[in-house]
Amino acid sequence: MPTILSVTFTENNMSETVRWANERIEKSFSTFIVTANPEIVMKARKFPDFYKVISSADLITPDGIGIVYASKILGQSLKERVAGYDLLHSLLEYREIQGIPTKVFLLGSKTEVVEAASMKLESLYRKVSIMGTHHGYFEKDSEEEISILEQISREKPDLLLVGLGSPKQEEFIHRFKNECGATVMIGVGGCFDILSGRIQRAPALFRKCGLEWFYRLLCEPSRIKRQIILPVFAFLVIKERMLRGKEAPEYKLTE
């Protein structure tokens, strides 16, 4: 399995990941999926408790072109980026084509945003039923959190989408994976903002060139504080490659 700075990723491409996730839903296997970008990898490197959280996931996908480039540098076999937003739509589209109903619960963001996101999903996919939504502004170990868990447990969604931002979303799923009653659980970051229309996704050209991060930075300059970590990530990957010596084969980032 490809490992980037001690975080182990799936080798599956998007279609393979979708089929795997669909099978988990159909067999009612409780499943925790992490879509990890360089920021999450660096956070796991810095905080051992968070590393334990994401290491408990059933699958970690490469969300971010930086992860794919890092795998090439290290001579590993990541096939393509499997971003959370794309995985969500690909999975729902797959089930739609198969004619399989999907029960979905959305947790995170502001009330008006998560409700708008839920309406968007139902308008896009006839087989999707939104079993509930809840904003993400609740305290850990609060009565509100207990109430949220009870609501999710009652509805038993096939797909629980948690958009609390990292690390809160991964920690939430890790803590309650075995008691919340959901089947496949994914931390989806800012997906609700895009679904609701509050934020526009990068144009296809930016995504194709691996520059979605740059587009988001242009739209949200405040993200610079988070993205400062990217050069450090690149340095550590190159350092690891050098320490491995000739072990990794030659590569081209343009492949």
Note down, in words, how this protein is organized.
The protein is α/β, with parallel strands linked by helices. The protein has 13 helices and eight strands. The chain has one domain (3-191, 204-247). 51% of the residues lie in helices and 15% in strands. α2 (38-46) crosses α3. The longest helix is centred in the last third of the chain and has 16 residues, at 229-244. The radius of gyration is 18 Å and the shape is globular.
Topology overview:
Blueprint: E1 3-4, E2 7-8, H1 14-26, E3 31-36, H2 38-46, H3 48-55, E4 59-62, H4 65-73, H5 84-98, E5 102-108, H6 111-124, E6 128-134, H7 143-155, E7 159-163, H8 168-176, E8 184-187, H9 191-196, H10 204-208, H11 212-219, H12 224-227, H13 229-244
Parallel strand pairs: 3-4, 3-8, 5-6, 5-7, 7-8
Antiparallel strand pairs: 1-2
Helix pairs in contact: 1-5, 2-3
Structural features:
about 260 residues, alpha/beta, six-stranded parallel β-sheet, 13 helices, about 50% helix, disordered C terminus, transferase, glycosyltransferase, hexosyltransferase activity, WecG_TagA_CpsF
